[in-house]
Amino acid sequence: MAENISYEEKTLKRSVLIVTSFAAFLTPFLASAINLALPSIGNEFHADAISLGWVISSFLLSSAIFLLPFGKLGDIIGRKKVFFTGILIYTISTSLIIFSWNIFSLIIFRIIQGLSGAMIFGTSLAIISSVFKEGERGRAMGINITATYLGLSSGPVIGGLLTEYLGWRSVFAVLLPFGIIAMILISRKIKTEWAEAHGEQFDWKGSIIYGFSLAGFMYGFSKLPSTTGWIILSLGVIFAILFLFFEKRLEFPVFDIRLVLRNRVFAFSGLAALIHYSATNAIGFFISLYLQYLKGFDARTAGLIMISQPVMMALLSPLAGKLSDKRNPGIIASIGMGITALGLILLCFINVTTSVSFLVLLLLMIGTGFGLFSSPNSNAIMGSVEKRYLGIASGVVGTMRMIGQMMSMGIAMMLLSLYIGQQKISPSTYPGLMHSMKTGFIIFSGLCILGIFASLARNKKIRGKSHSLS
Asked: Candidates 1.20.120.530, 3.30.230.10, 1.20.1250.20, 1.10.3210.10; correct CATH number of 2-189+254-456?
């Protein structure tokens, strides 16, 4: 009997790892591939630089708003159920994008796609943490994050080729069969459901207030330094304060504030993730525009150059994850952020005459830092909470990533607005694009340096510490 149970456990673990890694591949693949497709989208829809930024940001904004609520909902009604629904909506929204008729319709469909991304990322790490115990969780997360980086690394190459020869819509079309295969795998291979918070009431009011807060903050941030931007940002902050007061009074809040107030590891690991993604996400956006506009490369060549960063992420993530099961993940993550910061500082000095080999070297360095940071940091967060909080913790990991990515794009869009304005990118605006990039890399370098201190501020002993909040 024990052997049968052991075999069933092994089968379940293998199936969960395959399915979650498969799903983890889809969204980052599209995120990196679409960077290469932006110039083609802009040409077809006659879109300006700010609108092209929203093709990226609309997905991030939608995902960030819904990640935490869907993570909590998964704890209550079942993580597999929410995860499967996310894959279904992702597949449907991807098919809708293929038929976009203008830039506005494309952005709307990307918002729907972002909602599905929240369902996937709000539950995937929680499912892994439910199946893999301490001591093997870091390795499993490393493999899962490797799938993410494989998506990031193959996206520029495949996306560049598809855009070059079949048009930008083919980037979305190629994902449809993968979504269908993922749903079949979930239905056939994963029969277990996880819902440790079953019976708790879902906090609808708190989720709505949280959504308004995040939307106001992130959308307002993207509109800075305009007066409208400051007003919307202020409203977002007001809703955030209201959310905190509201959540403290509830028995079953969508986000238990005590996780931050009483759990140092959880709080500072989340902050480190927020800063790291804020400092790095817009790199791909800027470098894609730099290579195609300022250096004159086609989408395929630009993709081959940009692959260097995610390849290093994919190679190092499983090793870093496995190492974080044996060593302090906070230290490993801090070293990674330090390497990322060094790469960003050097990026501040690139210009139109910078050699491709030097740029590839910097992207490899940033990829190394990223690979050392992500798996250990996620392991630290998921290992610091009880099982009934795994959905929330998974949602927090995803939310910090999405908010950080959105803030990074917000900074990029704000700089483009300052230096270029509502104009199409053309030779006359190339100096403004270069100024936007260099200023952005200076800001990102400063953020990353601050992030090193946030990463080091967590407890010295992380592994083996599960912080009870009952």
From this structure: 1.20.1250.20
